[in-house]
């Protein structure tokens, strides 16, 4: 039975190294301004949304220094510090925002050291539970970038490491350098290009965090999703999240929003039960 007070908890739990979190997590990218740039128009409203996300049972929050930039991390600390015991915050470094709508990889060791220190300061932490290398930099050897994060983990600034936007080869490279507890790649009903990476995560017991779990809305307009949603008296977003949760036991979706109504709707997706026929139609 789903606890209506904390519906996100009904998805069950998943391990991130020695940490246990609820499998339906929360993506905090949208608490920044439009286009993930600058401050939100209504800062107190975003504080309320972040607190509501935890109340609903989301015990893992995903963020990054590039969201804003710096805004999402700052907002999380403003809303929730001192942090509830259950809350685990994962952030990322290695993507920079030279301008609005601009995203550029930066995997240089000196940048990653500064980025981590900035995240620690904004989140008001001495050690980050999960720090993910946001994106490989074509101008810097992958092993050099991830090796820097491994050094920072040994220094006690990072508890667990993850990678993002990687292929299977890069995941294997990272695992030869240090333990990897998570991979964050784009994945949803409409985009399954990372199926091989997901399979590698399943084989190794690594959490797979799909970004754009709703396909930025694109997949939700498909006829097959609409039909299943109508039959189940659910929203297309709820069907898309239920499909991800059923797709793999290592899947940890991170739907994000700036609306409390949508937040609550997404959390209620744990009550959606897909029949084998539904799975076949969506697969």
Q: Would you spell out the secondary-structure blueprint of this structure?
A:
Layout: E1 13-16, E2 19-22, E3 26-27, H1 43-55, E4 60-62, H2 71-80, E5 88-93, E6 95-96, E7 104-105, H3 109-123, E8 128-133, H4 142-154, E9 158-164, H5 168-177, E10 180-186, H6 195-204, E11 207-211, H7 223-232, H8 236-247, H9 260-267, H10 276-282
Parallel strand pairs: 3-4, 4-5, 5-8, 8-9, 9-10, 10-11
Antiparallel strand pairs: 1-2, 6-7
What does this structure look like?
It is a single chain. By secondary structure, this protein is of the alpha/beta class. The chain has a single domain (9-218, 248-258), classed as NADP-dependent oxidoreductase domain (TIM Barrel), CATH 3.20.20.100. It has ten helices and eleven strands. It has helices spanning 43-55, 71-80, 109-123, 142-154, 168-177, 195-204, 223-232, 236-247, 260-267, 276-282; strands at residues 13-16, 19-22, 26-27, 60-62, 88-93, 95-96, 104-105, 128-133, 158-164, 180-186, 207-211. The strands form three sheets. It has a seven-stranded parallel sheet with strand order 3-4-5-8-9-10-11, covered by helices on one side. β3, α1 (43-55) and β4 (60-62) form a beta-alpha-beta unit. The model has no long low-confidence stretch (mean pLDDT 96).
């Amino acid at each position: 039975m789903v606890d209506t007070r904390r519906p996100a908890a009904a998805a069950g739990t998943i391990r991130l190294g020695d940490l246990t979190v609820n499998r339906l997590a929360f993506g905090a990218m949208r608490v920044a301004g439009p286009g993930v740039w600058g401050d939100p128009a209504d800062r107190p409203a975003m504080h309320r949304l972040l607190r509501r996300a935890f109340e609903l049972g989301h015990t893992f929050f995903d963020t990054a220094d590039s969201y804003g930039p710096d805004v999402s991390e700052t907002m999380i600390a403003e809303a929730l510090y001192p942090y509830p015991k259950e809350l685990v915050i994962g952030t990322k470094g290695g993507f920079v925002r030279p301008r609005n709508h601009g995203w550029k990889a930066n995997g240089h060791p000196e940048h990653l050291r500064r980025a981590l220190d900035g995240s620690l300061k904004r989140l008001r932490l001495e050690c980050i539970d999960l720090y993910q290398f946001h994106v490989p930099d074509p101008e810097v050897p992958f092993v050099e970038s991830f090796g820097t994060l491994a050094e920072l983990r040994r220094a006690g600034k990072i508890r667990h490491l993850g990678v993002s936007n990687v292929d299977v080869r890069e995941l294997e490279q990272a695992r030869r350098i240090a333990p990897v507890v998570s991979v964050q790649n784009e994945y949803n009903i409409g985009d399954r290009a990372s199926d091989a990476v997901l399979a590698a995560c399943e084989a190794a017991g690594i959490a797979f965090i799909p970004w754009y779990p709703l396909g930025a809305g694109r997949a939700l307009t498909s006829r097959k999703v609409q039909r299943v949603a109508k039959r189940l008296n659910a929203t297309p977003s709820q069907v898309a999240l239920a499909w991800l949760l059923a797709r793999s036991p290592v899947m940890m979706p991170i739907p994000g929003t700036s609306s409390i109504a949508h937040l609550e709707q997404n959390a209620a997706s744990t009550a959606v039960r897909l029949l084998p026929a539904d799975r076949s139609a969506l697969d």
